[in-house]
Specification:
9 helices, alpha/beta
């Protein structure tokens, strides 16, 4: 079993499947891993339903007038998870954004804000950057190790606390949902890694 691929979700009301950005994303990441969604509510529900997966969202700010706008979609995603990487790609003039909206974007970890009238090629390196950041996260490294185990081993309780027992798959899900259990496990794994690095020399793969 191989680690799960990164899902790229584009929420945009004017892009089509034959637009250069979508074609390039599909060429680079595969058709099954790129989803273009026109309607904001549908896009939001898709992201929330699949938020335990590695995911990058490319989000327009100006969507259909009778639907949730981009900043509202951003806010709703961040309310549920901070682990989805969000790139804002919009024709909206940045100067027209309110100070409060800009502060909200910055304080809630949007990856970048790009103007869609510029070269779409500027978005592709941002997706690559986000994918790299996903690959070096604790949950992704843990998933790569778990993928080498048999289904029987994955289903066994791996750790327990006063609230119950947890399998490795449940631990990954908890980390990606930003739950307290997941945050504590992630923190302890990082502490252990630092401790090991300071105590002995470790040979890294090229």
């Amino acid at each position: 079993m191989i680690p799960s691929p990164t899902k790229i979700v584009v929420i945009h009301d004017t892009l089509k499947v034959n637009d250069p950005l979508i074609i390039e994303l599909i060429d680079e990441h595969g058709k099954d891993n790129v989803t273009l969604i026109e309607h904001s509510d549908e896009g939001l529900q898709y992201v929330l339903k699949n938020r335990t997966q590695k995911m990058i969202v490319i989000l327009d700010l100006d969507l259909h007038v009778d639907e949730l706008q981009g900043i509202e979609v951003f806010r709703a995603i961040r309310k549920e998870t901070s682990l989805v990487y969000i790139i804002i790609w919009t024709a909206k003039d940045v100067n027209s954004l309110s100070k409060d909206n800009l502060v909200e974007l910055v304080n809630n970890d949007f990856l970048s804000l790009e103007h869609s009238t510029t070269d779409y090629g500027k978005v592709l390196p941002l997706v690559t950057k986000a994918q790299h950041q996903l690959e070096v996260r604790v949950d992704t490294i843990l998933e790569e190790w778990i993928s080498t185990l048999s289904p029987e081993e994955r289903a066994k309780p791996f750790m327990m606390n006063v609230e119950g027992e947890y399998t490795l798959d449940q631990i990954i899900k908890s980390i990606r949902l930003g739950e307290e259990l997941g945050r504590n496990i992630e923190r302890n794994i990082l502490k252990l890694a630092v401790s090991l690095l300071t105590k002995q020399k470790i040979r890294f793969n090229d």
